[in-house]
Amino acid sequence: MRRILSFVVLVFLASAFLAKAIPAQNETKQELQLSAPADSSEESMAQAAQVEQDKEERLQQAIKYQKAKNTLYFVDQGYGILFLVLFLFLGISAFLRRQIEKITRKRFWVVAFYTLLFLIIAFIVGFPTSYYGFSLEHKFELSNQTLLQWFGEELLGLLVIGIIALIVVEGIYLALKKAPRTWWIYVSVVFIGFTVVLVNLAPILILPLFNVYTPLPEGELRDRLVSLSHRANVEVENIFAMDMSKQTKKANAMFTGLGNTKRIVLGDNLVDEFTTDEVEVVIAHEMGHNLMHHIWWGILFSAILTGIGFFIIHLTGPRIITRFRNKLKIDDMADVAGLPLIFLIFVIYGLITMPVFPAFSRHMERQADKFALDMTQNKEAFISAMDELAYMNLADPNPSPIIEFLLYDHPPISKRIKFAEEYESGTK
Ligand SMILES: [Zn+2]
After folding, report:
1. Cα(133)–Cα(149) distance, rounded to whole angstroms?
2. What sign for the dihedral angle of Cα 245, 21, 212, 207?
């Protein structure tokens, strides 16, 4: 449901400003290093057996966790579609618009109030699945958040989405009113510009609402990363640490922003748990995204997908409104009571094209992985970083091919490790 709330606004966008992340793992390793070296071989064998057992248990947990998350994803999609269909076909949407018109008949305000009320209703209706997502994180001991903290962030997220949605929806309905035949062209073009601005502003305006970002402190790690950036022939990029442990026990890093705001962000969990070699590989991966302009490619790709989506809405929307006039009670496409219909068409279009963006993203991730190996020539660190990511994040290293095809924007960990194992060093 959350995906529906944010569909037009954030789904494609999120991939651009949030998702260029590398997933990674490690607890056992450091604990092992810390514990005194075993004196007798018997002791070390027992310890090794313990580690193996621990790994196996963690793997089983990961499979269960990912299964639950995937199920939740599809249930959430179905639930969202059901909500939109009922909201439209029971005439609730038209009723809501009529109530607003009793207060004001000014077009701008009708659109604004309708959009906000719709978002709030969808937020409430979608609460059960959101809450289930939160409880899953606790069930698998991945969350560091209390219910109150989580709910606070949900409300903050709703506020951010509300502001962005207001701008987007007002824009769409202005275009629908002024240019009923060509609105989708204007909207698509403006949407690209808006996305670029938002991706640029997100790291300074939106992300800091949820976390604190601090420049990586001076020290060995920073020196290593600076020297890496010289070797990679890129400017010393801004590298930040982020208090990710505020929300989760998972580890992650990302490349985000655009132009003057682009930066590499390391989760504190990752900095704490990973060896310097491993962090270096992760950063090299993110530098690869930067050097190969992956955020721009992501925006371009999303823009094409979104543009086609708006065109499909233009083709199908008016027909659906005419065909079901009695039930929907929507005047025409320029009637804001048809907003859930725009969402509905977009969601179904999104389901049909579901494998497209992840496939493109997996391709970019593979390129970034290759870049990381080229730069560091450190297969071992790459592989252990991957193992650690899987361990900490409860990633299923071997998802079913269908799930990978539909949902994975990164190659599964097992494939990334295999890629590194088969990597011929010295190609650079
Ligand atoms: Zn990546």
Report:
1. 14
2. negative
Over the stretch 237-285, which tens digit does the pLDDT of each residue have?
688 899 999 999 999 988 888 988 888 899 999 988 999 999 999 999 9
Q: How far apart are CA 280 and CA 108, in angstroms?
A: 51
pLDDT on residue 299: 92
290 C-alpha to ligand 1 centroid (Å): 10
Mean pLDDT of 365-384: 94
Task: Report the pLDDT averaged over residues 421-428.
Answer: 72
Ligand 1 centroid to Cα of residue 368, in Å, is 6
Q: What is the predicted pLDDT for the residue at 219?
A: 86
φ/ψ (deg, to 5) at 239: -120, 125
Whether 385 contacts 281, CB under 8 Å: yes
Element (H, E) at 155: helix 147-178
The two three-digit tokens of residue 275, written as one number:
């060896």
Instruction: Give distance in angstroms: CA of 204 to centre of ligand 1.
Output: 21
Helix (H, G, I), strand (E, B) or coil at 214: strand
Q: What gap in Å lies between CA 306 and CA 192, rounded to an integer?
A: 9
Task: Tell me the CA–centroid distance for residue 272 and ligand 1, in Å.
Answer: 20
Distance 139 CA to ligand 1 centre (A): 28
Domain range list for the chain? 7-32+48-422
Question: What is the length of the chain?
Answer: 428
Q: Residue 21 carries which DSSP code? A: E
Ramachandran area for residue 293 (φ above 0: left; ψ -120 to 50: alpha; else beta)? left
| Cα(225)–Cα(284) distance, integer angstroms | 8
Q: Which of 213-222, 287-296, 313-322 has the highest mean pLDDT?
A: 313-322
Contact between 396 and 62 (Cβ < 8 Å) = yes
pLDDT-based confidence at 18, cuts 50/70/90? very low
Q: How far apart are CA 45 and CA 194, in angstroms?
A: 59
Q: Residue 425, CB half-sphere, CA atoms under 13 Å: how many?
A: 7
| pTM, full prediction | 0.85
Three-state DSSP class for 251? Answer: coil
288-to-168, 322, 338, 414, 428 alpha-carbon distances in Å: 32, 50, 43, 21, 14
How far is 372 from 212, CA to CA, in rounded Å? 27
Q: Is 90 exceeded by the pLDDT of residue 101?
A: yes
Q: Looking at residues 206-215, what average pLDDT do you find? A: 93
d(CA 398, CA 411): 10
Tell me the CA–centroid distance for residue 374 and ligand 1, in Å: 15
